[in-house]
Every structure is written in structure tokens, then in C-alpha cells.
Write a structure and sequence with these properties.
Chain A: This is ABC transporter ATP-binding protein. The complex is a heterodimer. Chain A is an alpha/beta fold. Chain A contains eight helices and nine strands. Chain B has a domain at 103-291: MetI-like fold (Orthogonal Bundle). The chains are: A alpha/beta, B mainly alpha.
Chain lengths: 250, 294
């Protein structure tokens, strides 16, 4: 089998220009099935563009994107839940669009997914009655409902307070350990990246390139305050600072 | 590319005193938005009825005072107008006219929706159609229905078809443009979310676009109804259709120089407009907005 088919997603020499500006330059990135990769970078490094390429929402100007099969699920910073549906119905719609034809089956599966994100009671609740953290958990359950092997997350917890973030991290890692989807998690929070990822990829800015990457072999459960997490986070912070300072000399 | 390996040198000190489930449940309780206080059914009914009732009483009192003052000698009093309405109803002309007007309004509105809604969707989705039709539809919206009546009469004669032509020409452009603006206001994020879940083409229209735009679509329907109703009254007033409607009674009042009959017809036309608004569109709109927490 060729390596292209064994990766959950693979970018090969991907370049993206917008109106003559080079945003992404020759990016090679391969995410293995079940791998948890965090993408870090200063603003303007093209993180979101990269994610759009992986999601198939946009095409590279040159180079290739290949997904292991199926449409990747995407989660946004804003929950993007449909306000006209209850939490349960939001998930059921994703199941339906993913091909679950039987209504009773969709309902059972939606309840199970809500249980997975610790929201077993939220099935009939409307989005506006849920807190920010609850909304993101429903959004996570909806993304999981697509049954995709690859989950793309665009700063999904950036707008949440520290404690809520901590809960969401535990929920996400719990799910990842059980179901092992490939995850690409974009964040600007270095500790979050180290706390979650099996690999942390640092992008450089203007144009976005892969500057460096770290393998994080710390066992789960981790916490953001673990000395090992802090140690690696500090090392990465140093590199990120360097990356940003480089632009002051341009 | 340099890769740094960091072994598992530290044991992770995870606090065991509290389970994450408790933390999560506690945050859910603390962070969930408070449900708005819902007033009792009686209270809501009272406030909903009081304001319009007060408005009606105010108008009636002012009107009665104006006629009683003797300053407006030709103005009929509210009671005279009510007598006129009762007389018309007894005479057997009012109710058939009312039924005919409402029937025309309903079927004209239905036809306008059947034409205007798909037209709006087409203008929204197809760039070329928008370029050509959007300015034309906006321009048409500003055309008074009275200007359309002679056109319709020349084309179709003094017939039902002429009346319906005026209603459709009056309602469709505003309805279609309302639909376009309702779709334009759907947040990009929701459309993107739908797309990543596999809702494309007609699936996107059905599962994302239409439900997301629903509050705006109701506004568009209401606007279409209002324009259609006004156009219908204009058409009934100006054309001598074989079957008279409420507009015809208004015209009869004018011919007879009967102030009471004219006022009675105007009050009737106004009442129908208000009742449809308050009895059909507003409850639907409120329900939709409440379900979304708006």
C-alpha cells in the first residue's frame, strides 16, 4: 500500500497564494490514523488556511492534499450549532447527512454521543440555553457524529475560560483515547498544544512554513500544570518568540 | 527538521480528590444562561390585549369628540359608521364582498409565494440572475399598484385575471427581494458548518439555508401579504370587476358621496390588515424567534 492511503491526511508540497501573496509555502504534513497533532504559530502563519486545505473547503495553489477517505469533520471556535434545532437534533442532522437513514437509530446514537461529552441530559435543550462550554461539547459530539477518521479543530476552546477549557481537554482526550480519530488541533495556546497533542508542529509566518516540530511522549492523563508539560511549553515558547522576532528585523 | 523527544520523566500529578465529572457538572450549572422569567398566561394575554384595545378606544373617543364638536360637519360619527356597516351586512352586499376580497387575497398571496419564493432563491443562488433581476425587482417594488391597474385592464379587460395580475405584480417583487435579503443574512459560519457535514446543493437549502433564514422569510411573507392586500384594494377600487369586493363598496361610497359608507369600508380594510398581521404573522414570528432564544 502506498503511504498516501495509510495517512489520515497528507499535504505534499502544498502552497497557497491569495491575490499574489504567498500564504503557505511548500508545506509537507502527514497525520497518521489516530494521531493527535497540534498546530501552533504566530498570527498570520496561515493556520486557518492550512486547516481549510485539510478540510477540503479550499484547494492548494500547488501541491497535493490527500485524505485517507471520507469527509473530515470540522469544529470551529464558534460552536456553529444550528439555533433552530435542539442539541440532540443538531447531532441527528449530522448523522442523517452522514447516511444514517433510520430515525430511531439516529436518536440512540445522538444520546450515546451526548453521554460521551458528559451531556446526557441535554438532548432536548436548545442551543441558547446552554453555556459556552456545553455548546462546544455538543459541537464536538456533532463532529463525532460524522463518523470521520479525521477531526479538524480550529481553535475550538479559545473563547472559553480556564476551568471550562480544562474540562473540555479531559473530555476530548477521553474521546480520543477511546475512539482514536486522527486530530489536527489548531491553537495559539502553547500549553494547550503540549497538554493535548502527541506531536506539536510550529509554523512560521509570512509565508507559513513548518518551522519545527516536537514529539510529546508524555502519558495521558496530563495536566497543563504538569512540570513536563511546562518544560516543553517553555522550550516551544522560546522558538515561537524567535519566530516572531525574526519579523521585527525584516 | 529537528524533532525533540521528551521521555516520560515526570509522573503526572493528577488530583484524585475531585472527579472531572463533578467539575464538569458544576460548571454546567454555574455557566448555563439563566432562563428568562416567563410571565403568566393571564398576564401575557392582558398585556397583549390592553395596548391595542387602548389604541382603538383612543381613536373612537377622539373621533366621537370631533363629530360632537360640530367643527367637521361632513364627518360621520362612529355610531353612524357602525349603523352603515350593519345596514350593508343586512342588505346582503357586505359579506359576499368581504368573502370575495379575502378569497382573492388568500389565493393571490398563495400564488405570489409560489412565484416569489423560488424566484428569490434563484436570485440568491445564481449570480447572473441576481445581476439582471435584482435591480429590476427593486425598481418594480417602488411602482404604485395604481399604476399597474390600467396596464392589467388593457391586457386582460375588466376581469378577475386583471385583479390577480395587479396583486401578483404588487406582491411578487417585494416578496422575492425579502427572500433574497433573508438568505443573504444567513451567517457564513452556519453555511460552512453545513457544508462540512455534507449538506450541499438542495440538501443545504433544505437543512441549513431555509431554517437559518426562517425569521427573515417570515418578514418577507408578511411584506408580500401587505403589498398584495394593498394592490388588491387598489385593483378592486379602480376596475369594475364583474364580482364586487370590499374595494367596490369603498368606490360605491365615493359615488354616493356617503361619508359613512366610505369610512365603514376604510375601517373594514384596515381591520382586515391588522387582524391578519396580529392573528397570523406576528404569532408565527414570535414563536420562531422564541425557539431560537431571540
Amino acid at each position: 500500500m502506498s503511504p498516501a492511503t495509510t495517512a489520515a491526511v497528507r499535504l505534499a508540497g502544498a502552497t497557497k497564494t491569495f491575490g499574489g501573496t504567498l500564504v503557505l509555502d511548500d508545506v509537507d504534513l502527514e497525520v497518521a490514523p489516530g494521531e493527535f497533532v497540534c498546530l501552533l504559530g504566530p498570527s498570520g502563519c496561515g493556520k486557518s488556511t492550512l486547516l481549510s486545505l485539510l478540510a477540503g473547503l479550499d484547494r492548494p495553489s500547488s501541491g497535493q492534499v490527500s485524505t485517507g477517505g471520507g469527509r473530515p469533520a470540522l469544529m470551529f471556535q464558534d460552536h456553529a450549532l444550528f439555533p433552530w434545532l435542539t442539541a440532540g437534533r443538531n447531532i441527528e442532522l449530522a448523522l442523517r447527512l452522514a447516511g444514517t437513514a433510520d430515525r430511531a437509530e439516529r436518536r440512540t446514537e445522538a444520546m450515546r454521543l451526548l453521554g460521551l461529552v458528559q451531556l446526557a441530559d441535554a438532548y432536548g435543550k436548545r442551543v441558547h440555553t446552554l453555556s459556552g462550554g456545553m455548546r462546544q461539547r455538543v459541537a464536538l459530539a456533532r463532529a463525532l457524529a460524522q463518523g470521520s477518521e479525521l477531526l479538524l479543530m480550529d481553535e475550538p476552546f479559545a473563547a472559553l475560560d480556564a476551568m471550562t477549557k480544562e474540562v473540555l481537554h479531559e473530555v476530548l482526550i477521553g474521546i480520543w483515547e477511546r475512539r482514536r480519530p486522527g486530530i489536527v488541533f489548531v491553537t495559539h495556546d502553547i500549553r494547550e498544544a503540549v497538554r493535548l497533542g502527541g506531536r506539536v508542529v510550529l509554523l512560521s509566518s509570512r509565508p507559513g512554513r513548518i518551522a519545527r516540530e516536537w514529539r510529546v511522549d508524555l502519558p495521558h492523563p496530563r495536566r497543563s500544570e504538569d512540570p513536563a508539560v511546562l518544560e516543553l511549553a517553555m522550550e516551544i515558547t522560546g522558538h515561537l518568540r524567535e519566530e516572531i522576532c525574526r519579523h521585527a528585523r525584516d | 527538521m529537528p524533532v525533540t523527544d521528551l521521555g516520560a520523566v515526570h509522573d503526572s500529578p493528577v488530583s484524585k480528590d475531585l472527579s472531572s465529572g463533578d467539575l464538569s457538572a458544576g460548571l454546567d450549572v454555574l455557566d448555563a444562561p439563566a432562563a428568562p422569567a416567563v410571565p403568566s398566561l393571564f398576564h401575557r394575554a392582558l398585556t397583549r390585549v390592553t395596548a391595542p384595545a387602548l389604541a382603538v378606544v383612543f381613536v373612537l373617543v377622539a373621533w366621537q369628540l370631533a363629530t360632537a364638536s360640530g367643527l367637521f360637519t361632513r364627518l360621520s360619527s362612529p355610531t353612524a359608521v357602525l349603523d352603515e356597516l350593519i345596514g350593508q351586512a343586512r342588505g346582503g352586499t357586505l359579506l359576499p364582498a368581504l368573502g370575495r376580497s379575502l378569497g382573492r387575497a388568500a389565493s393571490g398571496f398563495a400564488a405570489s409565494v409560489l412565484v416569489g419564493a423560488p424566484l428569490g432563491l434563484l436570485v440568491y443562488r445564481v449570480g447572473a440572475v441576481r445581476t439582471v433581476l435584482a435591480p429590476a425587482l427593486s425598481a418594480f417594488q417602488s411602482l404604485p399598484a395604481a399604476a399597474l391597474v390600467p396596464l392589467a385592464v388593457v391586457a386582460f379587460g375588466e376581469s378577475e385575471r386583471a385583479v390577480y395580475a395587479v396583486v401578483l405584480l404588487g406582491a411578487v417583487p417585494s416578496l422575492a427581494m425579502g427572500v433574497v435579503s433573508a438568505f443573504d443574512q444567513v451567517p457564513v459560519l452556519l453555511r460552512r458548518a453545513g457544508r462540512t457535514m455534507g449538506a450541499t446543493g438542495l440538501l443545504a437549502v433544505r437543512h441549513v439555508l431555509v431554517p437559518a433564514a426562517l425569521p427573515g422569510l417570515i418578514v418577507a411573507l408578511r411584506q408580500g401579504w401587505t403589498f398584495g392586500w394593498r394592490a388588491l384594494m387598489t385593483a378592486e377600487l379602480i376596475t369594475a370587476t364583474p364580482l364586487p369586493g370590499v374595494g367596490r363598496i369603498l368606490d360605491a361610497g365615493k359615488q354616493q358621496g356617503s361619508f359613512a359608507l366610505v369610512l365603514a369600508s376604510v375601517a373594514l380594510i384596515l381591520a382586515i390588515g391588522v387582524l391578519v398581521e396580529a392573528g397570523v404573522f406576528r404569532p408565527v414570528e414570535k414563536r420562531v424567534l422564541r425557539r431560537r432564544g431571540l
